[in-house]
C-alpha cells in the first residue's frame, strides 16, 4: 500500500512539473519593435496611458529615466503562472526625432503581450495623425 502511494505521488509530481516546462512553448512570442516619429516624453506618456486603459492590467512601477514601465495582470489567479502575469515595456530614444517601444526580453512570452503592444500602437499612431 505504501509503494502505491509513493507511485501516485511521484506521478502527480511529474505531471505538475511537466506542465510548467511547456509554458514558453504555448505562449506566443512578441519581439516586435514599434518605432515612432515622436519625442521620448510624449511616447512614454502615451505608452503609460495605453497600458492603463487595458482591462485587468495595473501599472506596478515606472522609471522614466530608464524608459521602463512594468504592469501586472490582476485577472489571472492560477498560482503556477505568476511569472507570466507581468509585462515590462521599454521606451527608448532611437535618435533625436524617433523613439521605440518594445517588450523587455523577459516579457516577450507573457499573457496578453500582443494585446498590450496593439493598444500602445493604436494610441501612438493616433498621436501621429
Shape: elongated
Number of strands: 5
- Strand content range: 15-25%
Largest beta-sheet details:
5 strands, antiparallel
Going across the major beta sheet, what is the strand order?
A: 1-5-4-3-2
Structure description:
The protein is an alpha+beta fold and 129 residues long. The protein has one domain (28-128): 2-Layer Sandwich (Alpha-D-Glucose-1,6-Bisphosphate, Chain A, domain 4), CATH 3.30.530. The protein contains 4 helices and 5 strands, in the order ααβαββββα. Strands 1-5-4-3-2 form a 5-stranded antiparallel beta sheet, covered by helices on one side. β2 (57-63) and β3 (68-73) form a beta hairpin. The model has no long low-confidence stretch (mean pLDDT 85).
In short:
With 129 residues, the protein is an alpha+beta fold.
Main traits of this protein?
129 residues, alpha+beta, Alpha-D-Glucose-1,6-Bisphosphate, Chain A, domain 4, 4 helices, 42% helix, 23% strand
What's the SSE blueprint?
Layout: H1 2-21, H2 23-26, E1 33-36, H3 40-53, E2 57-63, E3 68-73, E4 86-93, E5 99-103, H4 113-128
Antiparallel strand pairs: 1-5, 2-3, 3-4, 4-5
Helix pairs in contact: 3-4
